[in-house]
Amino acid sequence: MESVKPSSVAPSKSKLARTFAKVLHVRAMTGIAPVDGLKNVKVDADLNNEGNMGKNAINKEDEELQKRKAIDALLAKTFASISTVKSSYAQLQYAQSPYDPDGIQEADQLIVSEFKTLSELKQCYFKKQFDPSPHRAILAAESKELQSVIKTFEIMGKKLESQARLKESEIIFLREKLLEANMLNKSIEKRLTQSGSLSVLDNLHISGLSPSHFVTVLRHTVRSIRSFVKLLVNEMRSAGWDIDASVNAITEHNVVYFKEDHKCFAIESFICKEMFDSFNFPNFSLPNESLPDRNKRQLFFGRFNELKSMKAKEFLAGKPRSPFAKFCRIKYLRIVHPKMEASFFGNLSQRNMLNAGEFPDTNFFTSFAEMAKRVWLLHCLAFSFEPQASIFQVRKGCRFSDVYMESVNDEEMAVESEPQVGFTVVPGFMIGKTVIQCQVYPSKHQGILKSFTSKKQR
User: Fold this and answer.
1) Which of 33, 128, 367, 419 shows the smallest number of beta carbons within 10 Å?
2) Strand partners, 434
């Protein structure tokens, strides 16, 4: 018996493998799915399921979008109704003044109607009954809101026009009041001018002169001085002058003012000092002016009567070379500094006219000339007395005396137990044994002044 060789077994195994491969290939060609094919079928089913889920998600997004638009439409309707209520309420207020019953009723009906609309919108929100056409509803609501806003602005415009008409009527009323006040002021000024012409001293004879006549003229003189000081201070402020520096330049230092406005008294003191300088001398010591040895009282009283009823401007125009005209020129050039005049008026034309023997036709010089006239009249009246009236003033630091002085600041007098004189504002006069008090600005004690200065310096 022969043994089987290994080489004869190998070919038979390989042939069997090829046969199985053919069989598998034939099954594949005939459509029988392998195991991998089963897996592919399962994947396709999953894709179909995912597609259905994606469609469901898109539908939900559309629903959410529609719901959001419906809510936006509801909100738009709500704000439109609120705007309508606001405009109707504005119309209601406007119709109340002036009273308009038809307008009030119309506005009230609109308010009630819109409140009903708001209530309906509230119920729609809770019941989720939204508008099927939200886009159109939003446009309609926006249009309604714009109309309400326009209506509100129209009502506000009418209200502002009404207020403007009311203001115009108030302006007309105030203008009439101002006109009446101006007319009253002119009437008062006219009476003051009449009294300023010293008509109360008409038919006065030199033999009947008394200190009361002198006091009357002095009061008019002081009033005129203060009027010019007020004009001067206003011009200084308009020209940008430093009032404090000006006051320090014309007065002594270490004067404590009770109020800031009291510095005007220092300017008044300066004006009085310059205008009354040389008052005790005949003709104010004018150069090249001589007086007769006899009848001097009659001469001065005659000058007084000649000038008292005339305006200074008219007198200067008629007698430009009279002693009074020379007095005006000298005093103006001493009081009004060239720098001051240039800053007030931009030139030195008034000064140049005075130096040329002419007189300016300005309100400023007219006010000055009226003040100078009253000082001149007071001087003439002073030399009409026998003995003549004399002038005096007190020095700074003197103890206040009720006999010779009166204070221009009663508040300071109430504060100080022993007041002292800061400076003389208006000089005093003596006619025989009669004393006409000078007006002074009281100051604090010298010790208080020193302590105040040292604290300020620190």
Assistant:
1) 128
2) 431
